[in-house]
Amino acid sequence: MSASGIAIGESRRSHPAAVGRDRFKSLVEGWFRFHTGAIYVFLFLPIVVVVVFSFNGTNRYLTDWNGFSLKWYARALSDTQVQRDLWNSVTIGIINAILATAFGTMAALGLQRVPKRMRSFYDALTYVSIIIPEIVIALATLILFAGFQNTANGFFASVTTVGKPFKVGLGQWSIILAHVLFNLSLVLLLVRARLSGMDRTLVDASYDLFATPWRTFRQITFPQLLPAIVAGFLLSFTFSFDDYVISSFVAGVGSQTLPLYIFGQTKQGVTPETNAVAAVMLVVTLTILVGGQFLLGRQSRRTGGSSATTPIAIVAEQA
Amino acid sequence: MTSLLMAPATFWYLVLLVLPLVIVAIYSFGVRAPDGGYQPAFTFDNYGTLLKRPGPFTSSLLIAISGTILCVLLAFPFAYFIATRATKRKGLLLVLLVIPFWTSFLIRTISLVIILGSDGIGGFLSNLTGQNVQILGTMWAVLIGIVYNYLPLMIFPVYVTLERLDRTLLEASKDLGAGRWATFRQITLPIVWPGLITGSILVFIPLMGEYVVPAILGNGKVFLIGNVLQLDFLSSRDWPAGSAKAVSLILVMLITVSFYLWATNRGRRGREVSLL
Fold it and tell me: Are B233 and B239 within 8 A, CB to CB?
């Protein structure tokens, strides 16, 4: 608002009708403020409740507050099932993130050089894989894996003449394969957004200076893509680490992940131990996000990249 | 070289996306094998029973539409405030918005059980009214959970369009004697429109397939299409019936979204809105 605006506002104040208008305006402003604040409370209250009740010293009922205590954390972390499920979640998350980031980036680079018609074919598949409800992907993948399992086991049974035939079943591999589909598309979109905003002249200059394609990639393209690649990696891990729907369909025996454990607990009644596990999960996710934000923020200040260099900004820009 | 770069993505798209969906379409015409699973057949019975009992579908549509409308109503003033009023703290406010979105969906939903339950708002309302108020296990609980989880998906695109809003246009409109409402309708709304449409689609589509929220907050009393799919595949193992529902779900979504895009793009040539 400029100085003239203030002057107009002041001259208006002498009229009774203008006073009413000002009051209306401040009422609207106040309501805006209240509405925004209320939504933040709405969004954060559940997170705060989870964390607070994980420190409950009660012996049985979750909402019976009985003093501050860390005992449920001790119990959760010494629970062998929680340990195994946490390990499963982390392994699946990391392998999935590595595969999705590598393949997504490769596809984004490759798509630059394919004919337009082929590119729109891949675009369509990318959007379909992101936009289809998760449950449909989950059940379709389950059907595929089950079919594969039957065929493979039938084959192994027919070729084995001595001893027990080799058997395949659902497990960590099936969760990873299913998670990579969604995350690959996510990375692809992030890296492509970055590629399109990239300065082409640097690549041309590099070629003019007789750099090989590989060297150009390593010294010019890759450093510029790095923020998007790291963001894609972190988001892929987070997605996989928190995923319930797909994992619940394609998990095999012994490959239960932490979200599956937590969901199972809710069926038997939530205890502070579940809350402690949940709080640990929250801390892991938040550390990754904030860490990524910090790292990439520093990196972008050094290289002076585009505005959207942090995972949060990129997601906001993509949406 | 290029085909080498594309190979893994091609594998994933063809083998883990297209192929499974084709199999689902084929299975939807089959019958349930005696011990569960699929037995080849060619029948429309799975679709027939679906038409006879469309209950979960209507509930899902109802929840998805009302959830989307609620998200629009809540997101618009919120995004408007952040885009136009919060100058210095904008970055912080946006980060605060992303944090819940990227923390576990499941955990936050479970937490709502405590908040809405007899030790939280439900109990509070019961004491206040002297009656036994149950929020959990009703459509309201599911609606609250859904809006809670998907609101950020509406806020982001609306915010991005509002951010681009040129303030001088608003001043020009005022200078030309337009009132608040006229300015909103003729300047702000057309600019925010693409954001609202993108947001609605981003919210509507996952809402149609939602099953975690009704499973946790619905206490088994709210039955959406996602819950039926889960039962068909993991409990009764009637894969053909489930496949028919999945195919119908995709069709319903495609029709709704295409109609929505067609209706909102009508007469707005040059301002075409794409899915993402």
Answer: yes
Q: How far, in Å, CA of A207 to CA of A201, rounded?
A: 10
For residue B52, give how far its alpha carbon lies from the nearest alpha carbon of chain A (Å).
22
Return the SS3 of A191.
Answer: helix
Per-residue confidence of chain B (276 residues) as pLDDT tens digits?
788 888 999 999 999 999 999 999 999 998 888 887 788 878 888 888 888 888 888 888 899 999 999 999 999 989 888 888 777 777 778 878 877 877 788 888 888 888 888 777 877 787 788 777 788 888 889 999 999 989 988 988 888 888 877 778 878 888 887 777 888 888 888 888 888 888 888 888 888 888 889 988 888 788 888 888 988 888 888 889 889 999 999 888 888 888 887 877 765 544 444 444
Q: Which residue bears the tokens 């569960």?
A: B36
Rounded CA-CA distance A241/A251 in Å is 14
- In residues, how long is chain A? 319
- Cβ of A43 within 8 Å of Cβ of B151? The answer is yes
- The C-alpha atoms of residue A53 and residue A35 are separated, in whole angstroms, by 27
How many CB atoms neighbour CB B123 within 10 A?
A: 16
Q: What is the largest CA-CA distance in chain A?
A: 101
How many Cα neighbours within 13 Å face the side chain of B256?
22
Best CA proximity match to A72, nearest among A81, A60, A80, A89: A60
CB contact under 8 A, B17 and A128: yes
- Asked if B148 and A46 come within 8 Å (Cβ–Cβ), the reply is yes
Question: ipTM value of the model?
Answer: 0.84
Question: Whole-prediction pTM value?
Answer: 0.83
Cα separation, A183 vs A179, whole angstroms:
6
Which residue of A61, A86, A143, A174 to mutate against B (max B Cβ within 10 Å)? A143
